[in-house]
Amino acid sequence: MDDRAEHDEPRVPQQRRSGSAGEPAALRFDVLGPVRARRGEEQLPTGSPQQRALLAALLLREGRTATAGELIDALWGEEPPSQALAAVRTYASRLRKALDPGVLVTESGGYAVRGLGEGALDLAVAQEFASEADKARAAGDLGRARETLNRALALWDGEALAGVPGPYAEAQRVRLEEWRLGLLESRLDMDLEQGCHADAVSELTALTAAYPLRERLRELLMLALYRSGRQAEALAVYADTRRLLAEELGVDPRAGLRELQRRILQADPELAEPSAPAAEPAVVRVRPAQLPATVPDFTGRAAFVAELSEVLAAAGGGGSGGVMAVSALAGIGGVGKTTLAVHVAHQARPVFPDGQLYVDLQGAGARAAEPETVLGAFLRALGAAESAIPDSLEERAALYRSLLDGRRILVLLDNARDAAQVRPLLPGTEGCAALVTSRVRMVDLAGAHLVDLDVMSPDEALALFTRIVGEERVASEREAALDVVAACGFLPLAIRIAASRLASRRTWTVSVLAAKLADERRRLDELQAGDLAVKATFELGYGALDAAQARAFRLLGLADGPDVSLRAAAAVLDLPPEDAEDLLESLVDTSLLESAAPGRYRYHDLVRLYARACAERDEQAAGEREVAMSRLLDFYLATATGVYAIERPGERVLDHLSRGDYPGLAFADRGQALDWLFTEASGLLAAVQQTGTAGALRRAADLLLAAVDLGESGISSRQYVLAATAVVAAAQRARDPYAEGRARLMHSHILGVSGQFTESDREAGAALTLGLAAEDPVVCAQAPNQQGIIALYNGRHEEAEQHLTKALAAFRADRNTPGEASALCNLSRVHLATGRTESAVSLARQGVTIYERDDTGMALRLANGKYALGLALTSAGEITLALRTLTDALGMFQDARQQLWHGMTLFRLAELHLADHGPARAAACAEQALAVLHGIGGDWRRANVLTALGRGLHGVGQLDRARVCWQEALSVFETLGSPEAADVRTLLASAPVG
Questions:
Q1: CB distance 952 to 914 below 8 Å
Q2: Within the chain, what is the greatest distance between any pair of CA atoms?
Q3: Whole-angstrom Cα distance, residue 461 to residue 458?
Q4: Which residues face 37 on adjacent strands?
């Protein structure tokens, strides 16, 4: 065959563009897997393996003619059969009949494939993608290059030319596989350049197990582990590689691998961060442009604009003396700090071509933004992959400063609480700058350029008023206009609200507005006193509202969530959604309410405080505030109960939940239900947390129970725990054992999810005592169930069995068949842990049978049953059935968005593969589990996964890295006092040192 077929990048026939839509479906050919021919969706017959070998040989010859002799050599090599020529002719004739006319042609005693349409051969498509990726990478567009390479790699369907015989096919298989690995290494290299090292570890672990002698993969794995904070494992990979190369080939690692080891040992800072951090996989590097829109009628402040612009220009141009510039604007609320800062920032955009970051730090509210949360958002905006964002504030701040290094970016930190909140958010290098606004003067922010912003001058205030209202209306009533801006205290926000109200009411004159403002009862006495001056501007807008608008403004401010949905607002106001929307939109028009997104609304922090003050002052009906919040709680409870019913149909808990007076939403399917639950998480849990009245406590506790998926998923666990502890405290004050027992039960459950087993056990015990006193069947069954789970985790098997037996009896007494199935599955795990494998399988099957017998869509509970059954079957040696069972559970947990159990099922699959002598697959599953469980599940679960990962790595010969995993797991187990520590010590003692 022609030696051009041996090039690194496979060459294929030139392909013409496909015809119009009216033509018959074009032919398609696959060689990156089984050799196939298709016409549209129709699979065409390609005959025997030798016939497919002939087709493959012709497809890979770039449209050139292959002689009969060349084809005979390709199919049979040096020992062809006596009738080889006749066989070639027969194969060609059959293929010609199967394919379109003119595709397989006879020429000069040979054969060729001609006239293929564009994209007709998968190899040609892969080659085109690879070429595009090279161009994108050369242009610095790593995101597009990675995406394109992934598309190329996705075209492989197993082994190239699978099942095709002959020496030519074998040679091509080797070359195509080498090319595929080269593409894969190139994409993984870009993964690391873009900061996706944590995600790459799992894939590289599997690849190094499959291709143990491929040094480039080992090098990438070392770098990925090092950047993931796993330095010891990275060095262990090198030790494993050196030993393997010496044993198998008698050589040392190549120079690049040795150099990487040296740099890791020296903690080379250039290794610590990727050269081009970017966004999530397959996303191009982002240049953030987060500044809010500047107001078109910005007026005055010329001296401040010039002063701040000069500071920013010097900083962005490198003229700030080698340090990062900080300007901090201070002033009372409503004085225009944000407006000025945004205006100046927009003017300075050319000086900061690499982008602008913005955040509202909510410093004026009760819950200021946490710096680590803000840094997470900034890191994502700068292009850091989600998996690359560390947990701690210090690590996030360090990564943030590293990503800003060498870039010219402006950071606008709006509405800051104090200097302590700001410091971690400041860039660290010359070329960047920060603008900070706050109600306090930040004298303790070292090196900051401080600007004290006062009210407008009379001329500036009048100019702003005139630009909003219109020159024609103001010109004839100049004195009245001056009275208006004076009554506003020359505060820009107050002026803007007053002018906007006047502009929207064509029948009003300026004098009418001035007369309204002259009445001091329309304004607060504290107009000149600090923060209360802002209330004067809000009072102006509030006083112009009609009765329905004012009531809506007051009541909506009572809810603690960051925003409120239209349907939740309708519940607060006790109005149909259409009427509520009209009211809310009218409040948006007055600037007293913001539209956060379609169908969602929020208050500015200070406006919310003012609205609550109005509610305390102006609500006439007795208890109207409590009734409004009760309706909101009812709405959340009714809707969350509906979600719970969809997720857990037939669950007796539903019969024991409180029923409120206000209805909830109904959902067409499970996806909509879960979307609502996770979208409303913050508002729902905030409503629980602020419940303090005795009459609402039981509903608040029941809402925790109905919304358990929020805590169990790991996504909202922290806020869930805060809500649960708030209900516990309120119930103790009210001496309500029913509410306290349920709140403690749910608190225990979420503590267990996060790996805090001692605290979880204590709360479950307290819950059970309260449940027995209140004769609550939910707590009396679920609390011992939870105690049994914790005892199982802690290795107290006899105690676990006692608790779970009690739980089983309680569930049966309550006719709670799903609960009964849960207890049976948990008992199965106790039997498994105590060597009673046969009964463990039987118990788990009983549980699954109950779930399946009551099959009304109980996917999540069935997943729990299949999880337990999969463990028992694995122990019983029924590997095939166990694999199918755990794989079913994995899909169900993913669909239910249960991240914790998604990760734990991957861990159990790793254990299964270990039992089935598949260490490479086990290591890959364990790495995936570590990634999914990042930040959730607690240290105990992570240590168990590390133990399985070490066993998988040990099985593929990566001995040193295995020891590192086991040592880390042992440290965790010893700290926790877990019995698993003894098993890990045994592994370390018996494992040879590489």
A1: yes
A2: 114
A3: 5
A4: 29, 44
pLDDT tens by residue, 455-510: 788 999 999 999 888 888 888 899 999 988 887 778 787 788 778 778 877 888 88
Query: In a 3-state reduction of DSSP, which class is residue 435?
Result: strand
DSSP secondary structure string for all residues of 630-642: HHHHHHHHHHHHH
- 710: helix, strand or coil: helix
Q: Which helix (H) or strand (E) holds 357?
A: strand 356-360
- With residue 993 as reference, give the H or E element that holds it: none
Give SS3 for 138: helix
DSSP at 368: P
Residues 783 and 745: beta-carbon distance below 8 Å? yes
853, with CB counted inside 10 A (0-12, 13-18, 19+), is exposed
SS3 state at 358: strand
Number of other residues whose CB lies within 10 A of the CB of residue 245: 19
Instruction: Map tokens 């990156």 to a residue.
Output: 32
**Cβ 527 vs Cβ 334: under 8 Å:** no
Rounded CA separation 361/372 (Å) = 12
- 3-state percent helix, strand, coil for the chain, nearest multiple of 5: 65, 5, 30
For residues 39 and 86, is the Cβ–Cβ distance under 8 A?
A: no
Are the C-beta atoms of 421 and 434 separated by less than 8 Å?
A: no
- Cβ-Cβ contacts under 8 Å for 407 (sequence gap 6 or more): 354, 355, 431, 432
- What span, in angstroms and rounded, lies between the C-alpha atoms of 229 and 460? 56
Check the CA dihedral 911-917-921-927 and report its sign: positive
Q: For residue 913, give Cα distances in angstroms to 276, 514, 960, 982.
A: 37, 80, 21, 22
Q: How far apart are CA 234 and CA 226, in angstroms?
A: 6
Are the beta carbons of 601 and 563 closer than 8 angstroms?
A: yes
pTM score, whole prediction: 0.60
- DSSP code at position 519: S
Give the HSE-up count for residue 707: Cα atoms under 13 Å, Cβ half-sphere.
39
Q: If we measure between CA atoms, which residue out of 13, 58, 250, 90 comes closest to residue 172?
A: 58
Q: What is the pLDDT of residues 521-536, one digit of tens each?
A: 444 442 232 333 446 5
pLDDT tens, position by position, 697-751: 999 999 999 999 888 876 677 889 999 999 999 999 999 999 999 999 999 999 9
762 is written with which tokens? 């204590």
- Which strand (E) or helix (H) includes residue 434? strand 433-438
Among residues 898, 808, 816, which one has the least CA distance to residue 860? 898
Task: Give CA–CA dist 559/691, Å, rounded.
Answer: 10
Helix or strand (DSSP H, E) at 452? strand 449-452
Q: Write down the pLDDT at residue 852.
A: 85
Token pair for 62:
């770039």
Contact present, 870 and 886 (Cβ < 8 Å): yes
- Among the listed residues 124, 162, 145, the one whose alpha carbon sits nearest the alpha carbon of residue 34: 162
Length of the chain: 994
C-alpha angle 386/389/392, rounded to 5°?
A: 145
Spatial separation of the C-alpha atoms in residues 258 and 755, rounded to whole Å? 40
Mean pLDDT rounded to a whole number for the chain: 85
The partner residues of 328 in beta bridges, in order of sequence, read 436, 450
Alpha helices in 735-796 (DSSP H): 737-753, 757-774, 777-793
Contacts of 77 (CB under 8 A, 6+ apart): 166, 167
> Rounded mean pLDDT of 593-598?
76
Contact in structure between 557 and 606 (CB atoms under 8 Å): no
Write a three-state SS string for 337-356: HHHHHHHHHHHCHHHCCCCE
3-class secondary structure for 584-621?
HHHHHHCCCCEEEECCEEECCHHHHHHHHHHHHHHCCC
**Strand ordering across the sheet containing 27-30:** 27-30, 36-39, 42-44
Distance, in Å, from the CA atom of 398 to the CA atom of 400, rounded to the nearest integer, reads: 5
DSSP string over 879-891? HHHHHHHHHHHHH
